[in-house]
Protein backbone atom coordinates (compact mmCIF):
# COMPACT_ATOMS: atom_id res chain seq x y z
CA UNK A 1 0.00 0.00 0.00
CA UNK A 2 2.67 2.44 1.07
CA UNK A 3 4.78 1.48 -1.90
CA UNK A 4 1.94 2.09 -4.29
CA UNK A 5 1.46 5.52 -2.72
CA UNK A 6 5.10 6.33 -3.24
CA UNK A 7 4.77 5.28 -6.86
CA UNK A 8 1.91 7.65 -7.37
CA UNK A 9 3.92 10.52 -5.96
CA UNK A 10 6.66 9.69 -8.37
CA UNK A 11 4.27 9.96 -11.31
CA UNK A 12 3.21 13.39 -10.14
CA UNK A 13 6.81 14.45 -9.93
CA UNK A 14 7.42 13.30 -13.46
CA UNK A 15 4.40 15.20 -14.74
CA UNK A 16 5.59 18.35 -13.01
CA UNK A 17 8.98 17.88 -14.52
CA UNK A 18 7.51 17.50 -17.97
CA UNK A 19 5.42 20.62 -17.50
CA UNK A 20 8.44 22.72 -16.56
CA UNK A 21 10.61 21.34 -19.33
CA UNK A 22 7.80 21.93 -21.80
CA UNK A 23 7.52 25.53 -20.65
CA UNK A 24 11.24 25.91 -20.93
CA UNK A 25 11.14 24.52 -24.42
CA UNK A 26 8.36 26.87 -25.48
CA UNK A 27 9.98 29.93 -23.97
CA UNK A 28 13.57 29.35 -24.93
CA UNK A 29 13.69 28.58 -28.62
CA UNK A 30 11.69 29.00 -31.77
CA UNK A 31 14.12 27.65 -34.34
CA UNK A 32 14.68 24.14 -33.01
CA UNK A 33 11.53 22.30 -34.13
CA UNK A 34 13.13 18.90 -33.50
CA UNK A 35 13.50 19.59 -29.82
CA UNK A 36 9.91 18.95 -28.70
CA UNK A 37 9.86 15.60 -30.49
CA UNK A 38 13.06 14.46 -28.77
CA UNK A 39 11.68 15.73 -25.50
CA UNK A 40 8.41 13.90 -25.95
CA UNK A 41 10.20 10.67 -26.73
CA UNK A 42 12.38 11.15 -23.66
CA UNK A 43 9.35 11.87 -21.50
CA UNK A 44 7.51 8.90 -22.91
CA UNK A 45 10.51 6.73 -22.17
CA UNK A 46 10.68 8.09 -18.64
CA UNK A 47 6.99 7.45 -18.06
CA UNK A 48 7.39 3.91 -19.32
CA UNK A 49 10.33 3.34 -17.02
CA UNK A 50 8.43 4.68 -14.03
CA UNK A 51 5.45 2.55 -15.00
CA UNK A 52 7.59 -0.56 -15.20
CA UNK A 53 9.17 0.33 -11.85
CA UNK A 54 5.78 0.67 -10.19
CA UNK A 55 4.62 -2.58 -11.76
CA UNK A 56 7.69 -4.43 -10.54
CA UNK A 57 7.18 -2.96 -7.06
CA UNK A 58 3.60 -4.12 -6.92
CA UNK A 59 4.69 -7.56 -8.10
CA UNK A 60 7.41 -7.79 -5.51
CA UNK A 61 5.23 -6.55 -2.72
CA UNK A 62 2.05 -8.34 -3.63
CA UNK A 63 3.60 -11.47 -5.06
CA UNK A 64 -0.04 -12.27 -4.37
CA UNK A 65 -1.41 -10.30 -7.21
CA UNK A 66 0.17 -12.40 -9.90
CA UNK A 67 -0.14 -15.66 -8.04
CA UNK A 68 -3.81 -15.17 -7.37
CA UNK A 69 -4.43 -14.48 -11.03
CA UNK A 70 -2.67 -17.71 -11.85
CA UNK A 71 -4.57 -19.77 -9.30
CA UNK A 72 -7.76 -18.14 -10.38
CA UNK A 73 -7.13 -19.17 -13.95
CA UNK A 74 -6.43 -22.76 -12.95
CA UNK A 75 -9.58 -22.89 -10.89
CA UNK A 76 -11.74 -20.84 -13.26
CA UNK A 77 -12.92 -23.80 -15.25
CA UNK A 78 -14.11 -25.54 -12.15
CA UNK A 79 -15.55 -22.40 -10.69
CA UNK A 80 -17.93 -21.82 -13.55
CA UNK A 81 -20.42 -24.58 -12.81
CA UNK A 82 -20.05 -23.98 -9.07
CA UNK A 83 -19.97 -20.22 -9.13
CA UNK A 84 -22.01 -18.67 -6.37
CA UNK A 85 -22.75 -15.02 -7.17
CA UNK A 86 -23.18 -14.27 -3.47
CA UNK A 87 -19.45 -14.67 -2.89
CA UNK A 88 -17.92 -11.19 -2.82
CA UNK A 89 -14.98 -10.56 -5.15
CA UNK A 90 -12.59 -10.11 -2.24
CA UNK A 91 -13.38 -13.63 -1.04
CA UNK A 92 -12.85 -15.36 -4.37
CA UNK A 93 -9.10 -15.95 -3.89
CA UNK A 94 -9.91 -17.91 -0.71
CA UNK A 95 -12.70 -20.05 -2.13
CA UNK A 96 -11.68 -23.34 -3.69
CA UNK A 97 -13.29 -26.29 -5.41
CA UNK A 98 -10.59 -28.96 -5.25
CA UNK A 99 -10.73 -32.03 -7.48
CA UNK A 100 -8.87 -34.81 -5.63
CA UNK A 101 -6.88 -37.31 -7.67
CA UNK A 102 -7.81 -40.23 -5.45
CA UNK A 103 -11.61 -40.01 -5.38
CA UNK A 104 -14.60 -38.09 -6.67
CA UNK A 105 -16.11 -35.43 -4.42
CA UNK A 106 -19.50 -36.17 -6.00
CA UNK A 107 -22.26 -34.26 -4.22
CA UNK A 108 -19.63 -32.17 -2.44
CA UNK A 109 -17.97 -31.05 -5.69
CA UNK A 110 -19.47 -27.58 -5.43
CA UNK A 111 -18.95 -27.18 -1.68
CA UNK A 112 -16.62 -24.24 -1.19
CA UNK A 113 -13.41 -25.22 0.56
CA UNK A 114 -11.24 -22.84 2.59
CA UNK A 115 -7.56 -23.62 3.15
CA UNK A 116 -6.03 -22.93 6.55
CA UNK A 117 -2.92 -23.60 8.64
CA UNK A 118 -2.74 -23.41 12.43
CA UNK A 119 0.66 -21.87 13.14
CA UNK A 120 1.79 -22.51 16.67
CA UNK A 121 4.52 -23.57 19.07
CA UNK A 122 4.82 -26.77 21.12
CA UNK A 123 2.76 -26.76 24.35
CA UNK A 124 0.56 -23.83 23.33
CA UNK A 125 -2.79 -25.59 23.23
CA UNK A 126 -2.79 -26.29 19.51
CA UNK A 127 -3.64 -29.96 20.08
CA UNK A 128 -6.67 -28.96 22.10
CA UNK A 129 -7.76 -26.28 19.62
CA UNK A 130 -7.33 -28.69 16.73
CA UNK A 131 -9.59 -31.28 18.34
CA UNK A 132 -12.16 -28.53 18.96
CA UNK A 133 -12.07 -27.50 15.31
CA UNK A 134 -12.20 -31.11 14.18
CA UNK A 135 -15.42 -31.58 16.12
CA UNK A 136 -17.03 -29.47 13.40
CA UNK A 137 -18.39 -31.86 10.77
CA UNK A 138 -17.08 -29.76 7.88
CA UNK A 139 -13.57 -29.03 9.18
CA UNK A 140 -10.66 -31.34 8.55
CA UNK A 141 -7.42 -30.41 10.32
CA UNK A 142 -4.81 -33.04 9.66
CA UNK A 143 -2.40 -32.71 12.55
CA UNK A 144 1.33 -32.05 12.55
CA UNK A 145 2.04 -33.22 9.03
CA UNK A 146 5.48 -31.57 9.10
CA UNK A 147 6.67 -33.34 12.23
CA UNK A 148 7.92 -35.90 9.70
CA UNK A 149 11.30 -34.50 8.68
CA UNK A 150 11.56 -35.55 5.00
CA UNK A 151 8.35 -33.64 4.27
CA UNK A 152 10.06 -30.41 5.26
CA UNK A 153 13.56 -31.09 3.96
CA UNK A 154 13.23 -28.38 1.30
CA UNK A 155 10.60 -26.07 -0.14
CA UNK A 156 9.89 -28.47 -3.00
CA UNK A 157 8.89 -31.19 -0.53
CA UNK A 158 6.88 -28.71 1.54
CA UNK A 159 4.98 -27.49 -1.50
CA UNK A 160 4.32 -31.04 -2.67
CA UNK A 161 2.93 -31.95 0.74
CA UNK A 162 0.73 -28.85 0.94
CA UNK A 163 -0.55 -29.38 -2.61
CA UNK A 164 -1.64 -32.89 -1.70
CA UNK A 165 -3.31 -31.68 1.49
CA UNK A 166 -5.19 -28.81 -0.11
CA UNK A 167 -6.20 -30.99 -3.05
CA UNK A 168 -8.00 -33.14 -0.44
CA UNK A 169 -5.77 -36.11 -1.21
CA UNK A 170 -4.31 -36.35 2.30
CA UNK A 171 -5.53 -39.21 4.44
CA UNK A 172 -5.68 -38.93 8.22
CA UNK A 173 -8.09 -39.58 11.05
CA UNK A 174 -9.41 -36.05 10.45
CA UNK A 175 -11.23 -37.26 7.32
CA UNK A 176 -14.93 -36.50 7.44
CA UNK A 177 -18.06 -38.10 6.09
CA UNK A 178 -19.57 -34.68 5.56
CA UNK A 179 -18.51 -32.30 2.83
CA UNK A 180 -15.20 -30.70 3.76
CA UNK A 181 -15.57 -26.93 3.87
CA UNK A 182 -12.20 -26.15 5.48
CA UNK A 183 -9.03 -28.19 5.25
CA UNK A 184 -5.75 -27.58 7.01
CA UNK A 185 -3.02 -28.69 9.34
CA UNK A 186 -1.20 -27.84 12.53
CA UNK A 187 2.24 -26.45 11.85
CA UNK A 188 4.85 -25.69 14.51
CA UNK A 189 7.11 -22.70 13.90
CA UNK A 190 10.19 -24.91 14.24
CA UNK A 191 9.00 -27.36 11.59
CA UNK A 192 10.49 -25.58 8.59
CA UNK A 193 7.96 -22.78 8.81
CA UNK A 194 10.38 -20.05 9.87
CA UNK A 195 13.26 -21.44 7.87
CA UNK A 196 11.30 -21.24 4.60
CA UNK A 197 8.97 -18.42 5.58
CA UNK A 198 9.42 -16.37 2.41
CA UNK A 199 8.44 -19.19 0.08
CA UNK A 200 5.64 -20.31 2.38
CA UNK A 201 4.14 -16.82 2.58
CA UNK A 202 4.24 -16.74 -1.21
CA UNK A 203 2.52 -20.13 -1.37
CA UNK A 204 -0.15 -19.05 1.13
CA UNK A 205 -0.88 -15.92 -0.87
CA UNK A 206 -0.87 -17.68 -4.22
CA UNK A 207 -3.13 -20.50 -3.08
CA UNK A 208 -5.31 -18.43 -0.79
CA UNK A 209 -4.34 -20.15 2.47
CA UNK A 210 -5.43 -18.43 5.70
CA UNK A 211 -3.16 -18.59 8.75
CA UNK A 212 -4.51 -19.13 12.26
CA UNK A 213 -1.87 -18.14 14.81
CA UNK A 214 -2.24 -19.84 18.16
CA UNK A 215 0.20 -18.39 20.68
CA UNK A 216 0.57 -18.33 24.39
CA UNK A 217 0.68 -15.17 26.47
CA UNK A 218 2.32 -16.72 29.54
CA UNK A 219 5.60 -18.20 28.35
CA UNK A 220 6.54 -19.33 31.86
CA UNK A 221 3.49 -21.56 31.99
CA UNK A 222 4.44 -22.85 28.59
CA UNK A 223 7.94 -23.58 29.84
CA UNK A 224 6.55 -25.60 32.77
CA UNK A 225 4.46 -27.57 30.30
CA UNK A 226 7.50 -28.23 28.10
CA UNK A 227 9.57 -29.46 31.05
CA UNK A 228 6.74 -31.62 32.39
CA UNK A 229 6.11 -33.08 28.95
CA UNK A 230 9.81 -33.85 28.50
CA UNK A 231 9.82 -35.52 31.91
CA UNK A 232 6.88 -37.72 31.00
CA UNK A 233 8.45 -38.53 27.67
CA UNK A 234 11.37 -40.00 29.62
CA UNK A 235 9.44 -41.50 32.56
CA UNK A 236 6.24 -42.65 30.80
CA UNK A 237 4.20 -42.13 33.95
CA UNK A 238 0.88 -43.43 32.66
CA UNK A 239 1.22 -47.19 32.67
CA UNK A 240 4.42 -47.02 30.68
CA UNK A 241 3.19 -44.82 27.85
CA UNK A 242 3.99 -41.19 27.21
CA UNK A 243 0.99 -38.92 26.72
CA UNK A 244 1.28 -35.37 25.46
CA UNK A 245 -2.48 -34.90 26.00
CA UNK A 246 -4.83 -36.64 28.38
CA UNK A 247 -8.53 -37.38 28.38
CA UNK A 248 -9.23 -37.87 32.09
CA UNK A 249 -8.81 -35.95 35.31
CA UNK A 250 -6.96 -38.84 36.95
CA UNK A 251 -4.36 -38.91 34.18
CA UNK A 252 -4.01 -35.11 34.38
CA UNK A 253 -3.44 -35.31 38.13
CA UNK A 254 -0.71 -37.92 37.76
CA UNK A 255 1.12 -35.81 35.17
CA UNK A 256 0.71 -32.62 37.22
CA UNK A 257 2.33 -34.19 40.27
CA UNK A 258 5.71 -33.65 38.70
CA UNK A 259 7.06 -30.21 39.61
CA UNK A 260 10.04 -29.18 37.50
CA UNK A 261 13.05 -27.41 38.96
CA UNK A 262 13.80 -24.53 36.62
CA UNK A 263 17.36 -23.46 35.94
CA UNK A 264 17.27 -19.83 37.01
CA UNK A 265 20.39 -19.01 34.99
CA UNK A 266 18.91 -19.95 31.62
CA UNK A 267 15.29 -19.06 32.33
CA UNK A 268 15.39 -15.48 31.02
CA UNK A 269 17.26 -16.55 27.89
CA UNK A 270 14.67 -19.26 27.34
CA UNK A 271 11.74 -16.85 27.72
CA UNK A 272 13.36 -14.28 25.48
CA UNK A 273 13.98 -16.90 22.83
CA UNK A 274 10.37 -18.06 22.63
CA UNK A 275 9.08 -14.49 22.87
CA UNK A 276 11.23 -13.49 19.92
CA UNK A 277 10.24 -16.55 17.92
CA UNK A 278 6.55 -15.66 18.23
CA UNK A 279 7.20 -11.99 17.40
CA UNK A 280 9.29 -12.95 14.36
CA UNK A 281 6.59 -15.32 13.15
CA UNK A 282 3.92 -12.61 13.34
CA UNK A 283 6.26 -10.29 11.48
CA UNK A 284 7.13 -12.80 8.76
CA UNK A 285 3.52 -13.75 8.08
CA UNK A 286 1.96 -10.33 8.45
CA UNK A 287 1.17 -10.10 4.75
CA UNK A 288 -0.94 -13.25 4.73
CA UNK A 289 -4.62 -13.41 5.56
CA UNK A 290 -4.44 -14.32 9.23
CA UNK A 291 -5.99 -14.25 12.68
CA UNK A 292 -4.12 -14.28 15.99
CA UNK A 293 -5.47 -16.33 18.85
CA UNK A 294 -4.06 -16.61 22.36
CA UNK A 295 -4.41 -19.85 24.25
CA UNK A 296 -5.24 -18.11 27.52
CA UNK A 297 -8.06 -16.18 25.86
CA UNK A 298 -9.59 -19.36 24.46
CA UNK A 299 -9.30 -21.06 27.86
CA UNK A 300 -11.18 -18.15 29.45
CA UNK A 301 -13.71 -17.77 26.66
CA UNK A 302 -14.49 -20.62 24.28
CA UNK A 303 -16.56 -18.24 22.20
CA UNK A 304 -13.23 -16.97 20.86
CA UNK A 305 -13.31 -20.03 18.62
CA UNK A 306 -16.40 -18.66 16.92
CA UNK A 307 -14.09 -15.93 15.63
CA UNK A 308 -12.13 -18.71 13.92
CA UNK A 309 -15.28 -20.17 12.35
CA UNK A 310 -16.14 -16.65 11.19
CA UNK A 311 -12.65 -16.27 9.80
CA UNK A 312 -13.09 -19.53 7.85
CA UNK A 313 -16.59 -18.37 6.81
CA UNK A 314 -18.18 -21.42 8.36
CA UNK A 315 -21.55 -21.46 10.09
CA UNK A 316 -21.16 -21.27 13.86
CA UNK A 317 -21.81 -24.30 15.99
CA UNK A 318 -20.77 -25.74 19.33
CA UNK A 319 -17.32 -27.32 19.36
CA UNK A 320 -16.08 -29.91 21.80
CA UNK A 321 -12.91 -31.70 22.83
CA UNK A 322 -12.12 -34.56 25.18
CA UNK A 323 -8.80 -33.02 26.16
CA UNK A 324 -8.40 -32.35 29.87
CA UNK A 325 -6.11 -29.60 31.09
CA UNK A 326 -3.03 -30.90 32.92
CA UNK A 327 -1.78 -27.91 34.94
CA UNK A 328 -4.72 -26.36 36.76
CA UNK A 329 -3.26 -24.99 39.99
CA UNK A 330 -1.47 -21.75 40.69
CA UNK A 331 1.80 -21.60 38.82
CA UNK A 332 3.76 -21.56 42.12
CA UNK A 333 2.29 -24.98 42.89
CA UNK A 334 3.66 -26.42 39.66
CA UNK A 335 7.28 -25.29 40.08
CA UNK A 336 9.62 -26.88 42.60
CA UNK A 337 11.98 -23.92 43.12
CA UNK A 338 9.37 -21.18 43.02
CA UNK A 339 11.44 -18.75 45.11
CA UNK A 340 14.33 -18.88 42.63
CA UNK A 341 12.03 -18.37 39.67
CA UNK A 342 10.24 -15.54 41.39
CA UNK A 343 13.53 -13.82 42.19
CA UNK A 344 14.82 -14.28 38.67
CA UNK A 345 11.77 -12.70 37.04
CA UNK A 346 10.91 -9.95 39.49
CA UNK A 347 11.80 -6.60 37.98
CA UNK A 348 12.09 -8.00 34.45
CA UNK A 349 9.57 -7.60 31.65
CA UNK A 350 8.47 -11.18 32.35
CA UNK A 351 7.39 -10.45 35.92
CA UNK A 352 3.69 -10.65 35.10
CA UNK A 353 4.13 -14.30 34.14
CA UNK A 354 4.50 -15.05 37.86
CA UNK A 355 0.82 -14.29 38.43
CA UNK A 356 -0.14 -16.93 35.92
CA UNK A 357 -3.16 -18.91 36.81
CA UNK A 358 -5.47 -20.70 34.48
CA UNK A 359 -8.60 -22.71 34.60
CA UNK A 360 -10.61 -24.38 31.93
C1 LIG B 1 14.37 -32.17 -1.51
O1 LIG B 1 14.36 -33.22 -0.57
C2 LIG B 1 14.04 -34.48 -1.15
C3 LIG B 1 13.86 -35.48 -0.02
O2 LIG B 1 14.71 -35.24 1.08
C4 LIG B 1 15.16 -34.87 -2.10
O3 LIG B 1 14.88 -36.13 -2.67
C5 LIG B 1 15.22 -33.82 -3.20
O4 LIG B 1 16.30 -34.07 -4.07
C6 LIG B 1 15.39 -32.42 -2.60
N1 LIG B 1 15.22 -31.45 -3.66
C7 LIG B 1 15.95 -30.35 -3.73
C8 LIG B 1 15.61 -29.42 -4.83
O5 LIG B 1 16.84 -30.10 -2.95
C1 LIG C 1 -21.24 -29.59 5.65
O1 LIG C 1 -21.53 -30.89 5.17
C2 LIG C 1 -22.89 -31.08 4.84
C3 LIG C 1 -23.14 -32.54 4.57
O2 LIG C 1 -22.16 -33.14 3.78
C4 LIG C 1 -23.24 -30.19 3.67
O3 LIG C 1 -24.59 -30.36 3.31
C5 LIG C 1 -23.00 -28.74 4.10
O4 LIG C 1 -23.23 -27.88 3.00
C6 LIG C 1 -21.58 -28.56 4.59
N1 LIG C 1 -21.43 -27.24 5.18
C7 LIG C 1 -20.70 -26.31 4.62
C8 LIG C 1 -20.62 -25.02 5.36
O5 LIG C 1 -20.13 -26.44 3.57
C1 LIG D 1 -3.27 -48.39 34.02
O1 LIG D 1 -3.78 -49.63 33.67
C2 LIG D 1 -4.80 -50.10 34.53
C3 LIG D 1 -5.15 -51.54 34.13
O2 LIG D 1 -5.08 -51.71 32.74
C4 LIG D 1 -6.00 -49.18 34.45
O3 LIG D 1 -7.03 -49.63 35.29
C5 LIG D 1 -5.57 -47.79 34.87
O4 LIG D 1 -6.63 -46.89 34.70
C6 LIG D 1 -4.39 -47.34 34.03
N1 LIG D 1 -3.91 -46.11 34.59
C7 LIG D 1 -3.62 -45.06 33.83
C8 LIG D 1 -3.13 -43.89 34.58
O5 LIG D 1 -3.72 -45.07 32.61
C1 LIG E 1 -15.86 -14.02 24.29
O1 LIG E 1 -15.38 -13.98 22.94
C2 LIG E 1 -16.30 -13.44 22.03
C3 LIG E 1 -15.72 -13.61 20.65
O2 LIG E 1 -14.47 -13.00 20.52
C4 LIG E 1 -16.60 -12.00 22.38
O3 LIG E 1 -17.53 -11.48 21.46
C5 LIG E 1 -17.14 -11.93 23.80
O4 LIG E 1 -17.33 -10.59 24.17
C6 LIG E 1 -16.18 -12.61 24.77
N1 LIG E 1 -16.80 -12.71 26.07
C7 LIG E 1 -16.21 -12.29 27.18
C8 LIG E 1 -16.95 -12.48 28.44
O5 LIG E 1 -15.10 -11.77 27.15
TrEMBL record:
Keywords from the named record: Membrane, Transmembrane, Transmembrane helix
SUPFAM superfamilies named in the record: P-loop containing nucleoside triphosphate hydrolases (SSF52540)
Transmembrane stretches, start-end: 37-55
Protein name: Sulfotransferase
Organism for this UniProt entry: Setaria italica (Foxtail millet)
Amino acid sequence: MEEAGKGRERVVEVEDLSATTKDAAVVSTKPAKRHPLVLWIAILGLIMLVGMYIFSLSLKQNGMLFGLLQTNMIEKEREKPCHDPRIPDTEIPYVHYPTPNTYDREECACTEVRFFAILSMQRSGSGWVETLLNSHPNISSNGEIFSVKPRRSNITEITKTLDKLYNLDWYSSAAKNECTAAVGLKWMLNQGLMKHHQEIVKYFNQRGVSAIFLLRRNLLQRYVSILANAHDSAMKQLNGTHKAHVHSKQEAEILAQYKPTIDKKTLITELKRSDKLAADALMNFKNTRHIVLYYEDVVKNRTKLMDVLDFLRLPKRKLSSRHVKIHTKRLRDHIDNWADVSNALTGTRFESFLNGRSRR
